Amino acid sequence: MLELSILGFLAEAPLHGYELKERIKALTGHVRPVSDGALYPAINRLLAAGLLDQRTEAGASAAPRRVLSLTDKGRAELLVRLRTPKQAEITDHARFNTVLAFLRHLDSPAEQAAVLRRRLAFLETPSSFFYRGGEPVRAEEAGDLFREGMLRVARATGTAEREWLREAIDTLSRTAP
After folding, report:
1. Residue 31's pLDDT band (boundaries 50, 70, 90)?
2. Which of 20, 124, 141, 166 is the most buried (most CB within 10 A)?
């Protein structure tokens, strides 16, 4: 997801490393903090693959800074990753939010809707954090105040997300040629 975030933010504007780190941190927050030890190796991999360009410019105080931008190859890679997210990017809420943050870069409403349909199909499959006898445990069956809370919040969040997904898919379907 780090590479997708880098490609996505650089599709919007060239940035230097610190700006990029701050935007990624704002997107992922405390859920998946980004360290320099993860960010800069990822940037270097993307540079080596020809997906990013860099130029050096004078810093605000004294040190020069590397400004990163997306190459045409990088933009094409971003679009591929958005069209065909991995299953974990559909099923994991935080990862899906990263996909969602950049989905607007796909020009095709039909392709955008296809990604949303995958998420909706996942959310419509009965599941739980807890199982009893192979069946998902519902909040009312948790038998534990705290697990009940987890399950109730998850149900409310899932209901709201499914509702939004249906609305978004309907909107995209009306705009698709």
Report:
1. low
2. 20
CB 52 within 8 A of CB 75: no
Q: Can you count the helices (H) and strands (E) in the chain?
A: 8, 5
Instruction: Compute the average pLDDT of residues 41-58.
Output: 93
Are 20 and 39 within 8 A, CB to CB? yes
Backbone angles phi, psi at 135, to 5 degrees: -105, 145
How confident is the model over 12-17, as a mean pLDDT? 93
In whole angstroms, what is the distance from residue 22 CA to residue 16 CA? 10
The confidence score (pLDDT) of residue 30 equals: 65
Instruction: Name the phi and psi angles at 62, rounded to 5.
Output: -140, -45
- From 29, 70, 66, 77, select the one nearest 53 (Cα to Cα): 70
Higher model confidence: residue 121 or residue 128? 121
Residues, the chain: 177
| Tokens at 77, concatenated | 């890679």
Q: What is the reported pLDDT for 105?
A: 97
User: What token pair was written down for 87?
Assistant: 């299953």
For tokens 């919007």, what's the residue? 12
Rounded CA separation 86/95 (Å): 10
DSSP states of 103-168 as a string?
A: GGG---HHHHHHHHHHHHHHHTS---S-EETTEEPPGGG--SHHHHHHHHHHHHHHHHHHHHHHHH
